[in-house]
Amino acid sequence: MEDQLAALEVIFVEFYYWVTIVFMFLIHAGFMLYEGGVARRKNLQATVAKNVLLIPVVTVTFFFFGWWIYFAFVNGPGLIGGIPEGAEVMYPWTDIMGVNMQDRINGVFWAAFLLFAWTAASIVSGSIIERARVAGFVIIAGMIGSVTWIIDAAWGWSPNGWMVQVMGYHDAYASGVIHAIAGGTALGVLVVLGPRLGRFRDGVVRSIQPHNTWMTLIGIFLIYTGFWGFYVACNIPTLNVGTDDAPFFSATNIYLMPTTLSGITFNFLLSLSGGLFAGYVISRGDLFWTFSGGLAGIIASSAGNDLYHPMQAFIIAAIGVVIAYKLHGFVERRFKLDDVVGAVAVHGYAGFFGIVVAGFMLWGYPAAAPGPEGDVAWFTTPDGWPMINPLGNFLGAIIMFFVLGFLPGFVVAKILDAFGWLRVPPAVEAAGLDTHLYGDGYPYFEARETEFEPVERAEARTLTVDGKDAPGAPGARRKETPR
């Protein structure tokens, strides 16, 4: 690099994405703590092992073909054209996929997308803990981490993706591209996997209590922290969004349209706050759903947080949390769906809602600059650019949640189940997944672990105060089993 200013810009971008990777690593650490805290003691180490194993599985598969898919599949499922020229440079044996002095960006950009892939796989992991086989999960992790999510990124996250150029799809911080597809995949797997033993008995929904609330709390706050890196990695740090005659340099979203780190900072914190408030109120102070509400709030507003007003982000986040919470309860009772961490609701329902709302709230904004192929958009701005619109985002939400999420998850789970690779035997589940390989996760402590408690625990709890029963008090009636 002979030009000093050009060299500084390249090194800055290289370091910029490297820092986002470090932050996003905290998301994975958070998921491991979060899921480990929610799991019972007898399943703690097996739960952590699944999250550890997805790292090598997804990393290797993403290196060999996942990254190539992002560049090769932008033209959609045969609707527009074939594989574009230039995608072959992302084959794993090319110079650009290793140490070289000609390209300094590809490796860190690849790694940022890889961490998105880990996140998608971890979301599915949390919903199926305490009864899924490790072998079955790592196959599902490889599927979503290196195939289905990166296909939807090529379609709906690349500025040249057919959903962006034709439909005007807009999803700046991945309400659908990661979260809706992961929630849909989790739903498809859960339908086949079935609930944990004792979860639904005699017409009663029984809540299996987390073994360590502090572990869960620290985990969710690490996820919040890692989301700063997630958001920043969805931006391009500096780009000329003006003309050659009148240059104007700005940060841009993933579609190369201008935004600012200042703006997304406002919107991230307001959407987090809206989610926390709504989660606390709608769950009547339940801490698990308060924390999860903060995450669901971020996800619900993420599709448009590059352009929303901060109070729009706050309100959309709160509404998304209420919808996700209510749908979670209805589906759980009606269909006996045992989603351990509420991933289908927090990521899937909130993400679907966020995409649809962004289509209405941002209607008329340009989705991206016209692509190189000159695709004909359904709706265009006055200067001919593809336009964000409700129809494109609604159909995009269906594609993300159902077509690329639920259907592959359901089909792969069915195949794994047919081979006996999806669920552990009932005796193993009852004894605990740690029993055979690991033993007790806390060998130096004796503890009593809460097994089951009716979901309607707020109404069932009583505490004597001045000789009277006070409903909603923390002295829950529940069964305790020595461990």
What is the topological layout?
Blueprint: H1 4-38, H2 44-72, H3 106-127, H4 134-156, H5 162-167, H6 175-193, E1 200-201, E2 204-208, H7 213-233, E3 236-240, E4 249-252, H8 261-282, H9 287-302, H10 310-335, H11 343-361, H12 390-418, H13 426-431, H14 434-437, E5 448-454, H15 457-460, E6 464-465, E7 468-469, E8 479-482
Antiparallel strand pairs: 1-2, 2-5, 3-4, 5-8, 6-7
Helix pairs in contact: 1-2, 1-3, 1-7, 2-3, 2-4, 3-4, 3-6, 4-6, 4-12, 6-11, 6-12, 7-9, 8-9, 8-10, 9-10, 9-11, 10-11, 11-12
What does this structure look like?
The protein is an alpha+beta fold. It has two domains: 8-422, Orthogonal Bundle (Ammonium transporter fold), CATH 1.10.3430; 429-482, no CATH class. 58% of the residues lie in helices and 6% in strands. The protein contains 15 helices and eight strands. It has a four-stranded antiparallel β-sheet, with no helix packed on it. A two-stranded antiparallel sheet has the order 3-4. Strands 6-7 form a two-stranded antiparallel ribbon. Helix 2 runs parallel beside helix 4 (134-156). The chain starts with a helix and ends with a strand. Residues 456-483 have low confidence and may be disordered.
